[in-house]
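Sample A.
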Amino acid sequence: MIGWIILAILVALVIAIISMYNGLVQSKMKVDNAWSQIDVQLQRRFDLIPNFVETVKGYMTHEKETFEKITALRTSWSNASSVSEKANLDGELSTALKTIMAVSENYPELKANQNFSELSEELRNTENKISFSRQFYNDTVTMYNTKLQVFPSNIIAGMFHFTSRDLFKTQSNEARKNIKVDFGNNA
């Protein structure tokens, strides 16, 4: 009789371990999927940028520094490997794009340009998708990281070397600032 009780306890323990392990694996896969959704949207934005910049360049010749920064950020994106690196690049790019959008208000002929209007709308839609994807990713990472911390799943996580993931957050002070638009009017 004691043998059956011990066997039942062992079976229950094995089932609990398998259940916790599978829960951790599923959470890790959700984090990976959430990151890939951000990556897809950020890549979509980077794919739109060359056409957008070319459209705007003809009207905003004095914004050369901003265009060069966008080009450099786009190049840096392909070399970035960690979530924090991509988050910083994303923040800087968002700031540069907001600057161009704000400055474009001073160019009525640019705002009337059909290509500019379509690309602006695509970028706005993409920015909204990126924002949603960031939030979803951070929520998913928080749930996963919580599973790594709470008892008893933290024991299983430690046994099978599950590691915590970084949240998607900008570390750039520039990305947190309000955009300053200077039309060069000193009068």
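Sample B.
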Amino acid sequence: MTEIKDIFQLDYSSIVISIFIILSAIIAAVNIIGRFSEIIGRPVKWIKKKNEDHELLINTSKGLLALEEKQLEDVKQSIRHDKIISDKLENLTKMFLDKQIDDMRYEILDFASALSTGRKFSKEQFDHVLNTYRKYENILEENNLSNGQVTTSMEVINEIYKDELKKALKYQN
């Protein structure tokens, strides 16, 4: 029982301080040994491992920074290439559209010109030109463009077409 009384009479604050002083001394000794071993060029195994880990961490960090810079540059180049491709695609689309409109316009104008000189065409040829004109008008409308010379030519084509239909009906009767 006296032992228990002795334990309760101990000064715990001095014990805690003593443990703290002993741990501080151990840490200081370890640091002194580590620094000394680095100075003489013969690092202790645990110091060497710590330095290797530190170097690995630094190299990994540098590698990540390089990758991030490369990724940013790649993104910039990708955006620049996308813009170039988009511009070229838009230009090709415009060229194709202009070519398509010009071809349809030429076909309609040529047909009207041939009709006005007296050339004869079949009903299928008239239907083809009328269908081409509908496509031509749709393309112009979809692209907010206006019809130039073709309107007058279509009036001529429609008049001659109606006259030919009337003649064909009279001939059948």
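B remarks: The chain has a mean pLDDT of 85. Residues 114 and 120 are 8 Å apart (CA to CA).
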